[in-house]
């Protein structure tokens, strides 16, 4: 009961005019950071911390948190409209988001992404309020062996991302794993496939690779023709149709659950959530065959998942004082610089502040939706720019985006190389999504496998003796086997048909 | 379509090169006599080899505005990240030694990178001119509350009695924790099951709190929060004196084990910077690093400020290099 009172007190703090203003500024700045390629949430929040040092702690944190989840939404806009992910977690949205733009449904895609983000973020925040403590300890149950099993489960979704051919999906997936191998061996410490180039010691820059694979290759593939057909949409086209709403609902639900659960686990990034959500849609959505050709589920699911993830990732910070992701680590730095120690003591020592921040998460999610649904109109107006200019602009965006990741020209080569790889893959009809999946999950898989084996001293039975591992691995096996079973069934069908 | 693609590409290329070269603009200019340094209006670049928001970046961004006032010119903080600091360190070492570029140098990373030839580092210790040290963050060993291990002695005894049984964290291969542990094993004869969490301290802490490993080894700043909550119990600090954040926790030296393993972060210019300029930089940094407002903010981050002059910093660096060189083969043993 007292918790309810605390939360109401928190709303009183968060709804004060100044704090509301800072939340609004944060949402706007965050959206802008998400829209600009290259400046991701981490760099964005970090660069703005010094500006907040003179604000009262509550206002400062409210604003920085708003920037953080605002950027999660902003990344969607460029993914959908320009086929260029503003940040890593929105990479997978480009597939169906941009396909929707080509069909003239850009407005609907953005509106649904905004609503999905709102639902995901709000549900995750309710989880944070209602059950932070047990959820925090749930995250701790996931040790390296469980983490590994979870990654394997994620990888099993690769079979769902296969388009027409499982072989081609595997080619794409293995290519991703090979690229993920580049860089310093996380356990042995030896550089792998770096050719003596220190820019490769950290591996291939993910954002540059993704922008090249999706964005640049699309431009190379179709030149300037493609956005030309898109007329500036009228208001009716901005709004999702009833059918689109109906199809989005289950996707938003799945995305919320997936993003929320993965967000609780320190070390899982938002891009894992959005990728797995896409995989789940490919597997479970009613119209799964349409995914990849502008299905609304392919936008609703991942965009919901990454916002649920972003909000759930605050649970380990509030309950354990552990920053679950690089962005949260930066946010934790902001707490510290304000003289606050994140963790359970925050609720006893600075209760009004802690509840004020939580209340502001609810408010921030509302602000984001209220802000972004009308703005969809403004964003889609970008599409009325003449195609020649627009394509040039997109190219500029990509180059700057790739460059500003590390301020290194090396990433420009990565961009171009991956643009060519993407072009080759499109030419041979090899799907891009499996490559992204393995590129994201590969390093996590390697790291957690080797950590597990260090814990067990090389004994693989560690994966068979822990209940959570066994369950996760069995689910993975089931998912991986379905297409094989389906193929066998299909092989039998004509026989049955003939008998009838 | 073909005809239209070309102008598009040309336009994009022009725009892109224009914008990127603006972002790149670092003044060349003629060599100035030390007397004019720093010239008004000519910015000084402060290279940070780690991501914005991390402890190295936070420390640099605290001193930058104060240093600006002191020197009367702008300081531009530039994050050149990658390869565990190696990319940024290379940028500092290769910069023109005119006093307009200097950067944050942190050990063990700046010390260890050139020791391993397979990393292809293009700098050594002598590529830098150390100017001042700002902070120190010692390694600390911690256990869970209720653990049978209650002291440094218990920890060593357990490592001797059941060699390799105790699971102990590091934040990756050849990190400060890893060097500290192999040094401890060498000096005491104990043996631990070392688990490397290459993603860093958050990952190691999660596994530790979730009881997947037994002992947490990390920097003081990484566990002050959990120690305050009572989620873990620090048992020993690897510094010459106790940490102001953990005043009740003894040092390994107090327990009779001569071991010091710390992360220190300071600032260095490229070697070859004229003495007169270097001395001006050292003097300005000495004042800024010891500025009470700066010290207070650094402490708020849970990091211990410890100023060292350029000379002392250079000596500490050299000393660490000797230690790490000796320990390097041990970090490669399985």
Q: Care to give the gist of this entry?
A:
The complex is a heterodimer of chains A (500) and B (334). By secondary structure, chain A is an all-alpha fold.
Describe the protein.
The complex is a heterodimer of chains A (500) and B (334). With 500 residues, chain A is mainly alpha-helical. A two-stranded antiparallel ribbon of chain A has the order 1-2. Chain A is globular, with a radius of gyration of 22 Å. In chain B, helix 6 links the parallel strand 5 and strand 6. Chain B folds into two domains: 168 residues, Bordetella uptake gene, domain 1 (D-Maltodextrin-Binding Protein, domain 2); 100 residues, D-Maltodextrin-Binding Protein, domain 2, CATH 3.40.190. In chain B, strands 1, 2, 3, 4, 7, 8, 9 and 10 form an eight-stranded mixed β-sheet that branches. The longest helix of chain B has 23 residues. Chain B is 42% helix and 20% strand. Chain B is globular. Chain B is built from eleven helices and ten strands. At the A-B interface, helix 3, helix 6, helix 16, helix 19 and helix 21 of A face helix 1, helix 2, helix 3, strand 6 and helix 7 of B.
Shape of chain B: globular
| Count, helices of chain A | 22
Biggest β-sheet strands, sense, barrel of chain A: 2 strands, antiparallel
Structural class call of chain A reads: mainly alpha
Shape of chain A: globular
Biggest β-sheet: strands ordered side by side in the sheet of chain A: 1-2
Compressed to H and E, one letter per element, the order of chain A equals: HHHHHHHHHEEHHHHHHHHHHHHH
Residue runs with pLDDT of under 50 for 5 or more positions of chain A: 495-500
Major pleated sheet of chain B: 8 strands, mixed
Number of strands of chain B: 10
Helix content of chain B: 40-55%
* CATH class type of the largest domain in chain B: Alpha Beta
């Amino acid at each position: 009961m007292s918790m309810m009172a605390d939360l109401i007190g928190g709303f009183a703090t968060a709804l004060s005019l100044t704090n509301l203003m800072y939340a609004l500024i944060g949402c706007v700045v965050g959206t802008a950071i998400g829209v600009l390629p290259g400046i991701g949430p981490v760099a964005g929040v970090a660069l703005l911390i010094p500006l907040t040092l003179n604000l009262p702690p509550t206002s400062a944190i409210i604003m920085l948190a708003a920037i953080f989840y605002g950027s999660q939404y902003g990344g969607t806009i460029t993914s959908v409209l320009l086929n260029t992910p503003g940040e890593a977690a929105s990479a997978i949205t480009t597939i169906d988001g941009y396909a929707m733009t080509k069909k003239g449904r850009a407005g609907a895609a953005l509106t649904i992404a905004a609503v999905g983000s709102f639902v995901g973020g709000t549900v995750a925040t309710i989880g944070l309020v209602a059950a932070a403590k047990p959820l925090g300890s749930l995250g701790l149950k996931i040790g390296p062996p469980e983490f590994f099993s979870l990654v394997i489960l994620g990888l099993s979704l690769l079979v769902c991302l296969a388009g027409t051919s499982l072989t081609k999906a595997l080619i794409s997936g293995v290519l991703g794993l090979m690229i993920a191998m580049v860089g310093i061996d996380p356990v042995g410490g030896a550089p792998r496939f770096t050719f003596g180039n220190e820019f490769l010691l950290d591996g291939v820059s993910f954002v540059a690779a993704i922008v090249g694979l999706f964005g640049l290759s699309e431009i190379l593939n179709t030149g300037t023709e493609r956005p030309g057909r898109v007329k500036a949409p009228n208001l009716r086209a901005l709004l999702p149709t009833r059918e689109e709403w109906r199809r989005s609902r289950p996707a938003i639900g799945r995305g919320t659950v997936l993003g929320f659960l993965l967000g609780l686990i320190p070390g899982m990034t938002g891009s894992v959530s959005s990728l797995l959500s896409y995989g789940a849609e490919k597997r479970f959505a009613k119209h799964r065959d349409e995914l990849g050709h502008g299905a609304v589920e392919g936008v609703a699911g991942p965009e919901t998942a990454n916002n649920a993830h972003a909000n759930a990732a605050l649970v380990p910070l509030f309950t354990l004082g552990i920053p679950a992701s690089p962005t949260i680590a930066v946010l934790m730095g902001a707490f510290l610089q304000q003289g606050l120690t994140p963790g359970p003591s925050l609720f006893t020592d600075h209760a009004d502040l802690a509840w004020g921040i939580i209340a502001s998460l609810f408010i921030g999610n509302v602000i984001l939706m209220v802000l972004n649904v009308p703005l969809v109109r403004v964003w889609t107006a970008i599409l009325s720019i003449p195609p020649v200019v627009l394509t040039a602009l997109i190219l500029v965006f990509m180059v700057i985006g790739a460059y500003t990741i590390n301020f290194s020209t090396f990433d420009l080569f990565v961009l171009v190389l991956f643009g060519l790889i993407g072009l080759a893959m499109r030419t041979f009809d090899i799907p891009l999504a499996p490559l992204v999946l393995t590129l994201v999950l590969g390093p996590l898989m390697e790291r957690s496998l080797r950590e597990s084996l260090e814990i067990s001293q090389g004994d693989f039975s560690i994966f068979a003796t822990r209940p959570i591992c066994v369950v996760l691995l069995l689910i993975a096996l089931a998912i991986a086997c379905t297409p094989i079973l389906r193929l066998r069934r299909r092989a039998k069908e004509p026989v049955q048909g003939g008998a009838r | 379509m073909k005809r239209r693609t070309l102008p598009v590409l040309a336009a994009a290329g022009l725009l892109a090169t224009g914008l990127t070269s603006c972002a790149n603009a670092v003044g060349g200019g003629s060599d100035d006599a030390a007397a004019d340094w720093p010239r008004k209006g000519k910015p000084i670049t402060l290279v940070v080899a780690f991501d914005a928001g991390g402890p190295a970046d936070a420390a640099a961004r605290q001193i930058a505005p104060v240093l600006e006032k002191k020197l009367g010119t702008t300081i531009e903080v530039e994050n050149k990240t990658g390869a565990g600091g190696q990319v940024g360190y290379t940028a500092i070492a290769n910069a023109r030694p005119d006093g307009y570029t200097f950067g944050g140098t942190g050990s063990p990373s700046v010390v260890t990178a050139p020791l391993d030839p397979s990393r292809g580092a293009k700098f050594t210790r002598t590529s830098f001119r150390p100017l001042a040290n700002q902070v120190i963050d010692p390694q600390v060993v911690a256990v869970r509350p209720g653990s049978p291990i209650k002291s440094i002695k218990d920890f060593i005894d357990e490592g001797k009695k059941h060699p390799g049984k105790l699971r102990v964290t590091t934040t990756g291969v050849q990190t400060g924790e890893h060097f500290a542990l192999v040094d401890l094993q060498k000096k005491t004869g104990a043996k631990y099951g070392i688990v490397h969490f290459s993603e860093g301290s958050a990952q190691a802490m999660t596994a530790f709190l979730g009881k997947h490993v037994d002992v947490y080894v990390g920097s003081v700043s990484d566990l002050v929060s959990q120690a305050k909550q009572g989620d873990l119990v620090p048992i020993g600090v690897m510094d010459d004196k106790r940490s102001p954040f953990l005043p009740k926790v003894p040092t390994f030296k107090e327990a009779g084990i001569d071991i010091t393993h710390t992360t220190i972060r300071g600032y260095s210019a490229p070697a070859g910077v004229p003495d007169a300029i270097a001395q001006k930089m050292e003097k300005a940094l000495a004042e800024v690093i010891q500025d009470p407002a700066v010290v207070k903010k650094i402490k708020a981050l849970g990091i211990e400020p410890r100023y060292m002059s350029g000379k002392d910093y250079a000596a500490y660096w050299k000393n660490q290099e000797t230690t790490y060189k000796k320990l390097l083969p041990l970090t490669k043993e399985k």
